[in-house]
Design brief:
The structure holds two protein chains of two kinds.
Chain A lengths: L1 H9 L3 H9 L9 H6 L3 H22 L8 H5 L2 H27 L3 H26 L5 H31 L2
Helix pairs in contact in A: 4-8, 6-7, 7-8
Chain B lengths: L1 H24 L8 H30 L5 H20 L11 H24 L4
Helix pairs in contact in B: 1-2, 1-4, 3-4
The chains are: A mainly alpha, B mainly alpha.
Chain lengths: ~170, ~130
């Protein structure tokens, strides 16, 4: 009898059960499409352009079209080529992290802000390196490189701004 | 533990700034190739400003009690990327670190990375 009374006392109320069931989980898979649908059309378009640039870069790299435009092609230094390789890999790791953040709708703004800063590091160190090593007749090459990096950086900043705007409109 | 980690980060930043000052003023640091030397100089010149800016920004945010989670997260990501670049790509052309200060930087770097990652997680309240 006493045990039953204790059990009743420990039993959660309906309000408590509702609160427990409605609490959002830390990770919940939504999918990129569902996640994009909740965001502004500008965010969606920016994300698609970023994916398009990534795909074009991959195509350009694997067909060998981009090879003459790299620092290693001008400096002939193996380290420049390896540096490009590792940054190429890191860029895809970052894209993957961004996609995962979107899939789970988890810290999207923070993820893209971090990616944008890393991209800025790539831009500054890459352009600085080319500025010092490229011959003056290859200035157009450096401008193309900087423009490519700036385009990606601008897209990332647009994603961050749009995400911040979305957050500010949510209750 | 958190304060110790922050202290390690500040200690490492101080060592890096001191080493950079030494490299700029002392010509005895050698790389395996001349082109390697310019590459190291280029990268170090960019990185030293990241260290100084990161240190200043974190100190300012801490002093004014502003949230610093995002700043530390960004610095952690950049620090790990630099580490990856150095140890997978630039290892063969970096200077032979015979100077005690250079050895101290190389030795404390993994500790610094772990400490910085801990600070980032702690700031983001993930631990």
């Amino acid at each position: 009898m006493k045990d039953r009374l204790n059990d009743d006392h420990l039993q959660p109320s309906q309000a408590e059960l509702d609160a427990l069931l409605s609490s959002p989980s830390l990770f919940a898979f939504h999918g990129v499409r569902a996640s994009l649908d909740r965001r502004s059309p500008r965010f969606k378009r920016t994300w698609l352009v970023l994916m398009g640039v990534t795909a074009l870069y991959l195509m350009g790299w694997f067909t060998g079209l981009l090879k003459p435009y790299h620092a290693a092609a001008v400096t002939g230094l193996e380290a420049d080529y390896q540096l490009h390789q590792i940054r190429f890999l890191l860029a895809f790791v970052m894209i993957t992290l961004g996609t995962i953040a979107l899939n789970f709708d988890w810290h999207v703004e923070e993820t893209f802000t971090s990616i944008a800063w890393v991209q800025l590091y790539f831009l500054v160190s890459g352009v600085g390196r080319q500025w010092r090593t490229m011959p003056s007749e290859n200035l157009s090459l450096m401008i193309m490189y900087a423009a490519n990096m700036l385009l990606i950086l601008t897209l990332l900043i647009m994603l961050v701004v749009e995400e911040r705007r979305l957050k500010s409109t949510l209750p | 533990m958190y304060r110790l980690s922050v202290s390690i980060c500040f200690l490492f930043a101080s060592l890096v700034i001191a080493l950079f000052t030494l490299i700029m003023s002392d010509t005895s640091f050698q790389t395996t190739t001349d082109r390697g030397a310019t590459l190291v100089q280029d990268l170090t010149a960019v990185r030293i400003w990241i260290v100084v800016a990161g240190l200043a920004l974190y100190s300012w945010k801490s002093a004014t009690n502003q949230p610093s989670a995002l700043v530390v997260t960004v610095l952690t990501a950049v620090a790990w990327i630099m580490f990856l670049e150095d140890y997978t790509v630039l290892d063969s052309i970096l200077f032979q670190s015979s100077h005690p200060l250079a050895q101290a930087v190389v030795f404390t770097r993994p500790v610094f990375l772990v400490a910085l990652t801990y600070v980032a997680f702690k700031n983001g309240r993930l631990i």
